[in-house]
Give the backbone structure.
Amino acid sequence: MSAPRYAVFGQPVIHSQSPWIQTAFGKAQGIDVDYRAIEAAPEQFAAALEAFAADGGVGANVTLPLKEAAFSLCTTTTSRAQRAGAVNTLLRKGAAWHGDNTDGIGLVRDLTGRNSLDLRGRRVLLLGAGGAARGVAPALLDAGILELVVVNRSPDRADALADAMGEPGRAVSRYWDDLRNEGDFELIVNATSLGRDPGASFNLPLSLVNSMTTAVDLNYGEAAIPFLAWARAAGCRNSFDGLGMLVEQAAESFQQWHGMRPETDPVYAELRERAATLVTGD
């Protein structure tokens, strides 16, 4: 029988830091973790996931653009995955997959724990309405924010996400072109993949920013550069990429697979150092 195997599925996935993170967690806990990255296009994902299971796969992470597809492939899901309609963590139970979404709790833990932000009573602007946005929206509402405003290039997707939250007084959708009329926000979250496009730039109204605004991109590395550049130019008080969230959501996945939650700060510190080295070329 094959040894237990773990993986991250996505397209593209070559850039993923998840194999390094999960291996580092395993070393700290004295567990030899077999974790790999598997490239899968949406139309190939179901077959790739079953082949992985047949080869000893018992747990997986799912990244863009497969999170909503992963939800549809699960026999059972957690309540937070059901609210999101998207899955980023898979656990094999018998002959079926159980799905969870740890993105939201990962983001909230990074913002409130590592970065000491108080989200209670804050207006939040969520850019995007795909799997990444769906993963974090419920957790932001649960963290006590005042209002969640969702905008997306396809308005119907934004409408669907806001409606799925089931809190019409707190979660609302707006048109991208009407952002200049929305006032200011204490938190702006970029959950779009725009930064992955060559030559991408963000041109958002400066009126979105006040003296307390934090901007966070769920992407990391080069994909986060355009949005964070806008945030600095707009005068945001804080700006963060998605590395902290990545580590925190990974720890939640690790706990589900191995029954123990690893310490995240040492892994985050080393990952941040590795990222700086990649940028400088050292």
Q: What stands out?
A: Residues 243-258 form the longest helix (16 residues).
